[in-house]
Amino acid sequence: MILGLILAIIGLVIIGLLFIRIKHFGKKIRLIILAALLVFLIISVNSTIRSGDTKLDSFGGYLNMVSSYLGWLVDFGKDSIKFTGNIIKNLSIGFGK
Questions:
Q1: Taking CA 42 as the corner, what is the angle to CA 37 and CA 47, rounded to the nearest 5 degrees?
Q2: Which end of the chain is more exposed for a tag (fewer CB within 10 A), N or C?
Q3: pLDDT tier at 96, thresholds 50, 70, 90
Q4: In 3D, which of 52, 39, 37 has the Cα closest to residue 5?
Q5: For the chain, first and last CA: distance in Å?
Q6: Do 62 and 56 touch, CB atoms closer than 8 A?
Q7: What are the CB-based long-range contacts (under 8 Å, 24+) for 9-14?
Q8: Mind listing the pLDDT tens digit for each residue in 51-77?
Q9: SS3 53
Q10: Comparing C-alpha atoms, which of 57, 51, 82, 84 is closest to residue 69?
Q11: What's the CA gap between 81 and 60, in Å, rounded?
Q12: What is the radius of gyration, based on Cα positions, of the chain?
């Protein structure tokens, strides 16, 4: 867990240094998106590990954690799609008046 956190911090520092060095705006946007995805991945994996009874001392524990994380990610995606659909539906009703 500590090793993963250290690697994530190193990754964010490298992304930050690249952001400073790159002059092209489109590449900077890609780096920002990459950093945001990395932060999302760190936070979501960390919350998955802390929320369940995952024991990372065996291969079965890792498989349990991965299946739990993927289930959480699918639920998050379904909820996001439903939320976005409701927003679009409510906006179209509001503009149709």
A1: 125
A2: C
A3: low
A4: 39
A5: 54
A6: yes
A7: 11/38, 12/38, 12/39
A8: 766 777 788 888 888 888 888 888 988
A9: coil
A10: 51
A11: 32
A12: 19
